[in-house]
Amino acid sequence: MTARRWMYTAFIAVPLLFAVAGPLLARGAPDDRSAPFGPSPWSPFGTDRLGRDVLAAALTGGQTFLTVGLLTVLGAYLVGFLIGVSAAAAPRRWLDDLLMRPVDVLLCLPALLLIMVAALRTQGSAVAIACAIGLALVAPIARFVRMAAAGVVHGPVMNALRMQGESRGYRYGRYAVRAMARPIAADVGVRFTAAVYFLASANFLGLGFDTTSTDWAVSVAANKDALMIAPWSVLLPGALIVLLAVGTNLLVDDLLSDPRTRAAGARKRRPAAPPEVANSRRRRRPSRVGRHG
């Protein structure tokens, strides 16, 4: 694993560690609250607007945020993938239009508008907001999957399999999975970042979780007025969100980069041989003229 990939993995590992092990680590924090935006007896990050320790709040505020984001992306991608693949493989044009024209209409609706309507209708239900975010993600996912699947379904390899009379469905499926794995995996990283963005925006606007929650986005929104006097109450949860979003995209891009591009980059980074070594190699190389007379 390269140093760059280790760095990207560390970007993701920090917020994941906060989310997974944070509640256990936060048990040592004092239950008594201190003065708002003042020093804390438990950590050097101080307290937030409710007098809670900033580090303890960050340790307990990631589980709900990450769980809702991951489930939203998985649900949206399941629906969008089925729509996109079905449209790409549709034997008739009217069936493709029947599947994709409602998606195009949904694509025109602002995502934040859907989230605001869901939040106001359900008094800020986290489930309703997650469904609204998933609905906003279904349309671009379906369009992307349809584009990626169309080149595979109607490509030369699939046509060759049909001409050979191949009747076993797993042959088609195996080739399609192998051909679509790279772009689909890269798109999942992008959609996860979008879900994090929408979820953070909803919480920042006060439409998501309870305003007294320790959720990272809620903490940023609730403490933003004290950025100058208590910066860690905003910077710490905000940095965790940024590390998660940026690290996910960078790691996915690095893992799914073209092997030929990686090989070319490795050759460029490889130090050139000294002139005397290069000259000795040329002298040792046998002559074609001498060998063939």
From TrEMBL:
Basic residues compositional bias, start-end: 280-293
Transmembrane segments annotated in the record for this chain: 65-90, 102-120, 126-145, 188-209, 229-252
Residue stretches in coiled coil: none
Main location: membrane
Family in the record: Belongs to the binding-protein-dependent transport system permease family.
Places the protein is found: Cell membrane
Entry-linked PANTHER family: OLIGOPEPTIDE TRANSPORT SYSTEM PERMEASE PROTEIN APPC, PEPTIDE ABC TRANSPORTER PERMEASE PROTEIN
Keywords: Cell membrane, Membrane, Transmembrane, Transmembrane helix, Transport
PROSITE patterns cross-referenced by the UniProt entry: ABC_TM1
Membrane topology: Multi-pass membrane protein
Highest taxon listed in the record's lineage: Bacteria
Protein name: ABC transporter permease
Record domain ABC transmembrane type-1: where: 62-252
Region span, Disordered: 262-293
